[in-house]
Structure formats: structure tokens, C-alpha cells
Amino acid sequence: MNTILYNAYLLHHRPYSDSQIMIDMLVEGVGQLRMLARLKGRHSIKHKAQLQPFQQLLISFTGKGDLKYLTQFELSGKVTLLKGKSLYCGFYLNELCQRIIPHNEPIEDAYALYHQHINHLQQDNEVEPYLRTFEFQLLELLGYGIDFEFDIAGDKIQTKSQYQFFDEMGWGKILPNEADYYSYQQAVCGEQLLAILNYDFRKSAVRQLAKKLSRYLLKPLLGNKPLKSRELFIKP
């Protein structure tokens, strides 16, 4: 029987026993899987060097339950090099995926989304647009995205109109006689919403709004435990 090999990325690992580690893998066409990997013997140093974050791997695994067993892995393609702010962003992507993508659920496009953005981080120093794009697209994959094209009445969002966000509903258009009240409640310009729709983060106000919205949408999924990777962005 031929062994099936999958493209995968390591998201997180921790010790499990003297000879095993527990790992969370993002696997192409499968989603996030939790596995045990044995790293012992004369090849253990080589294996530890290969089993690193951000490196595209070819893996095989066994197991029918929730916990799988990594049976084979090797590097696939060239080595990924992240440094500086891009490295911090890579850790953020890993922690975010590991925390909010359910295990053992077939979210097939999660791997492709992650792979695309890890490649972007290698090639561009302007990382913030890629973080926001990743967050909103991942939320959409998981069923928690919001519509930036249509308001809750089903009308297309207009560039010069003002909107207010309503939980589990979307964007409600602010009527002229409501403008004074909603300006206090931080009404949002339609032009900014359409910029987010098109992943156009050139303007500072759009970037600030996108960051605020993504954190608001991610909070229920992350719970009260803060993301450790966010601490890397805090200047001493």
C-alpha cells in the first residue's frame, strides 16, 4: 500500500514524554490535526531541525481517533526565512490558527490561506495589510465573517453613507436624523468599509478600523487568554 503524503505546516509543539512531542499541524485538504511525534535515536537531531515553524513539510500520519501519530515527515521545497517583524507576524499567524481553527474538522482552505500569507511575509516588509487580510479571510472560512458589501437591509454599502455595526446582523445605515446620536457611537464611513472589502489598507484610518474590527470579531473565539505573540509587537 502506498503511503499518502500531505503538505503541512507545524503550528505548535510541546513536550509529551522523554521521547515524544505533541504537535498541532495545519494539513492541506484536512485542517488542523493534533499528533504525537517520536524524536529519539540517531536521527533525532536531524528531525528536530526539520520540524520547525514556517517550513513546508511533507508528512504522513496514522490514527482514527482525535489524536494522530506522525509517521513520516520531510522538508518540502526551499527553507522559509522570516526575520524581524515578519517573524513576529509568523508567530502570530501560528498562534491564531492553533487557537481558533477547530481540530479534526475539514476546513480545507485554511492551509492554502496560511501558505499564501507566509509567502507574503517573506517578500514584503509592509506586513500589516497581510495580517488584516489573513484575519478577515480566516474569520470568513470559520463562519464568523461580516459582510462589507451589503448592509442589513440588503442594500449595497454606499461610499458617502455612514454605518453602525450590529452584532450578528451587520452594518446598518445611519439615517440623516440619527447622525448626531451615531456620531457619538463612532459611526463608520462606507468608503472605509468598501476599502476593507477590497483589502485596500493604504489609508491609516482604514488600517485602524480594520484592526479594531478584527480584534472585536476574534475576541469571542480567543476567550480571555491573551495571545502571547502580540506581546512581541510591544516596544520595550
What's the structural blueprint in terms of helices and strands?
Blueprint lengths: L5 E10 L4 E8 L3 E8 L5 H7 L6 E6 L4 E9 L9 H16 L8 H15 L4 H14 L20 E5 L3 E4 L5 H6 L3 E2 H8 L6 H19 L14
Parallel strand pairs: 3-5
Antiparallel strand pairs: 1-2, 1-4, 2-3, 4-5, 6-7, 6-8
What does this structure look like?
The protein has 236 residues and is of the alpha+beta class. Helix content is 36%, strand content 22%. The protein has 7 helices and 8 strands, in the order βββαββαααββαβαα. It has helices at residues 44-50, 85-100, 109-123, 128-141, 179-184, 190-197, 204-222, and strands at residues 6-15, 20-27, 31-38, 57-62, 67-75, 162-166, 170-173, 188-189. The strands form 2 sheets. Strands 1-2-3-5-4 form a 5-stranded mixed beta barrel. A hairpin with a 4-residue loop joins strand 4 (57-62) and strand 5 (67-75). Helix 4 (128-141) crosses helix 7 (204-222). The chain is elongated and about 75 Å long. The model has no long low-confidence stretch (mean pLDDT 88).
**Beta-strand segment tally:** 8
For the biggest β-sheet, the strand order reads 1-2-3-5-4
Span of the ends, CA to CA: 55 Å
Helix content: 25-40%
Unreliable segments of 5+ consecutive residues: none
Helices, by number, come to 7
- Rg, rounded, reads 21 Å
Average pLDDT works out at: 88
Structural class: alpha+beta
Strand content: 15-25%
User: In sequence order, what are the helices and strands, one letter per element?
Assistant: EEEHEEHHHEEHEHH
Tell me, briefly, the overall form: elongated
Largest sheet entry: 5 strands, mixed, barrel
